[in-house]
Amino acid sequence: xxxxxxxxxxxxxxxxxxxxxxxxxSLAGGSVIGRVIRxxxxxxxxxxxxxxxxxxxxxxxxxxxxEVDRRGKFLVLELSRGWLLxxxxxxxxxxxxxxxxxxxxxxxxxFHFGDDTRLVFNDTRKFGRIWxxxxxxxxxxxxxxxxxxxxxxxxxLHQMLRARSRELKPLxxxxxxxxxxxxxxxxxxxxxxxLHPRRRSSSLKMQESERLYQAIREVLEEGIRRNGASxxxxxxxxxxxxxxxxxxxxxxxxxxxxxxxxRIVVGQRGTRYCPKCQPL
Length: 280
Known about the structure:
The protein is of the alpha+beta class. The protein contains seven helices and eleven strands.
């Protein structure tokens, strides 16, 4: 599943005039900002979470895309009236292309613009969702703080951790606790911070919370600089996978201490860590 750096990469390329799609395709004519939706074609109605399928053209036709942003793992497009939100889930992909381009097998929703281009939402596993709403908080209001936001600090993270008594790995992946972290960046951040994924959050001292705060920010910022991580067929736009310290490296040696990376299951998720650098 694309995490914060992958979604941020997509958002940046959609708002700028650089060619990109998460599947390696090309962006037709640059930024989607300023483009007007002429019609919406629903090829898989369940992709649309809101409004009802019969209402989508009434709500969206004639709307101009004013801005492209991100909240957690959500893409947020500000329209001239309202907002359009995407969650890629397991296999979602977005393309912007010429109308003359050939449709692909798993295209689910097509937004036709008035300039012979279109935005296509492709989703093999059908878990991705799209919302057209008047208030984006109705969709993302329950998310936790943005880990790269100005309001997020080591002191705030420490308070949040101490207020709970959960294992660090599943807590950091809880989107209501902190928005945007998934399996990859949680494993990488915990290794950088020297914290075991099963460590109880309430046991962290302030110095450890500061290390974790810095590690989360550093790993996300590096992921964004490298256009995210390309680890399977879903997202193939980045190179951060070439710099993993623990993720997908079980059985290989830790680049910090030389100990073999181990794999355990924490919170029903495969978890990689270094037993020497991250003692329980």
